[in-house]
């Protein structure tokens, strides 16, 4: 039987954690509507700071750049990650498979500062490229690939091998097996990987800071630069819009996952 006192303290601890996490965000959102120019006192309600965001053509360009980088890097990383996960799954040498998986996991836990510095050295000395759009895109693709691999591999391991063997016995080609059996069954894992890669790319600062150039920037780098120059409620408004966009993505992802769970339950019932 669950101890009611322990259960109560657990709930209080959880509430305290959520307050610590969301109180600064709520504070930021509230003061994005502040008529005054500081966050010291709320003097009146206004949407002027949001108007300033939409009137800032440079900021709109940076938003578009950020979205393009996030979508492209997530899409490319998803394709490469799915192929990489399939390659790892079909490796016959167990030791080699373990080493490749270890290398993939190391990239996940490696500090962003080290990854950013490594790419800076790569694009400066080993493969000289002008810092800008392409260096940011390549860096984002690189750190997103291990995430996609990690999301797709469990789906591949949960595949029914009998279906693949049956398809081979019926004369199906490798492309048909991949297109008709494997890809439909791992699509949810690929979507999860794409979603995670998209959010990582949108939020990344450390790696992007190292590989961006003077003529190209993303939202995270731009916000950092503006905050260093001084507190502006325009940043609050921009951060609020980013928070709402992230929230919408999370809700969409939640409903997609719920749909997948329902389909999986139906499939078990009909088995």
From TrEMBL:
Keywords from the UniProt entry: Cell membrane, Membrane, Transmembrane, Transmembrane helix, Transport
CDD domains associated with the record: TM_PBP2
Gene3D superfamilies according to UniProt: MetI-like
Alphabetical GO biological process terms: transmembrane transport
Cellular component annotations (GO), alphabetically ordered: plasma membrane
Domain ABC transmembrane type-1: 63-253
Location(s), subcellular: Cell membrane
InterPro entries: Bact_Polyamine_Transport, MetI-like, MetI-like_sf
Pfam families: BPD_transp_1
TM segment ranges: 12-33, 59-91, 103-127, 133-153, 182-202, 235-256
Name the record gives this protein: ABC transmembrane type-1 domain-containing protein
Species name: Helcococcus kunzii ATCC 51366
Lineage of source species: Bacteria, Bacillati, Bacillota, Tissierellia, Tissierellales
